[in-house]
Amino acid sequence: MTDTQPPFLAFALPDIGEEEIAEVVDTLRSGWVTTGPKAKRFEDDFARYLGEPGLQAIAVNSATAGLHLALEALGIGPGDEVIVPTHTFTATAEVVRYLGADVRLVDVDPVTLNIDPALVEAAITPRTKALVPVHYAGLAADMPALLDIARRHGLKVVEDAAHALPSTCGGRLVGTLDSDATVFSFYANKTITTGEGGMLVTRDPALAARARVMRLHGISRDAFDRFTATVPSWHYEIVAPGFKYNLTDIAAALGLHQLRKADAFAARRAELVARYNAALADLPVLRPALPPAGERHAWHLYVLRLADEARIGRDQLIEALFSARIGCSVHYIPLHLQPYWRDRYGLRPEQFPHSQRAYERMLSLPLHTRMSDADVDRVAAVLRAALA
Ligand SMILES: *Cc1c(COP(=O)(O)O)cnc(C)c1O
């Protein structure tokens, strides 16, 4: 019997080439599998990719770890409040709780689904210490407005750039803006991947030094390096109860080659997005917000929203796609609906009307560099049959 079902089209897929495989094998044969020369090279290459002098890149084993390290280094702690968009993954907010500080969730702009600067300003209290904007789906948040608010209120800014490699804001790459730190993710479904991994980027030398120490058990490398000439290499100093957040050379081996492909990956994603946009133009859907003229959008996600006149609901549409063997997802179930966040802060959907409305109507279509144009057409045909 022949199988007449089409192959399953994954929502996201890593794009790992022979270069990555050879580099990982080289690492395995080298005798050095944990953090070492390749993690260091990945950091140097990443800073060079962003292309501005004075930036330090600190490789970590997840973006979650990087966000935690950045807020820790900025001194966030009990009694403090940190402003986070409700329309994000829980990692953006959970790191605030790791430090014993509290999260102040705010709603997003209904068009971009990025945090709304006016609502940020309204949410500031005397306890507010920092702000963690997310570049949702790869579209840069309104950083000029957010940085202006932060400056006027003396707040720190850590960008959650898990979706935003490579994205620009005002013609500058995310990672080179004037925030205190920016954190990228190399999780399996992100625009480049190391399986698990992340990069903390900052031009603040004190933040970088603290993050490097806390990344590895609170071992002071400065003390270590200062004394290597006179003290045998077994000597080290613990200056804080640090974490275990270092990136392995096995993972960095993947990252070295993924980074070199980042621009080509982004170009291919943009082509797929353009094809979706054209194919879906006459359906009762809201296509994703486009970046301002001249700006780059990383297109981590292609998020569609059903228009009011659509004759079926979002859940039904997802069922239709899965029946046609097409993967999809929802980004995100907003934090204000999640039991932990909802109950801790007594949150109600009416407090976040834009995120709530978007959530109820949204789905994320397959978008990755191993998709063909024909795959986009196949998804569009299923949407057309369900909606037209
Ligand atoms: C993926 C993601 C993270 C966490 O990244 P990890 O590398 O898995 O820790 C944080 N924030 C957002 C918005 C993400 O999508």
UniProtKB/TrEMBL annotation:
Modified residues (N6-(pyridoxal phosphate)lysine): 190
Presence of the UniProt keyword Repressor in the record: no
GO molecular function annotation: pyridoxal phosphate binding; transaminase activity
Keyword line: Aminotransferase, Pyridoxal phosphate, Transferase
Keyword hit for Acyltransferase: no
Entry annotation: catalytic residues: 190
Domain of life: Bacteria
InterPro entries named among the record's database cross-references: DegT/StrS_aminotransferase, PyrdxlP-dep_Trfase, PyrdxlP-dep_Trfase_major, PyrdxlP-dep_Trfase_small
Name of the protein in its database record: DegT/DnrJ/EryC1/StrS family aminotransferase
Originating species: Ideonella aquatica
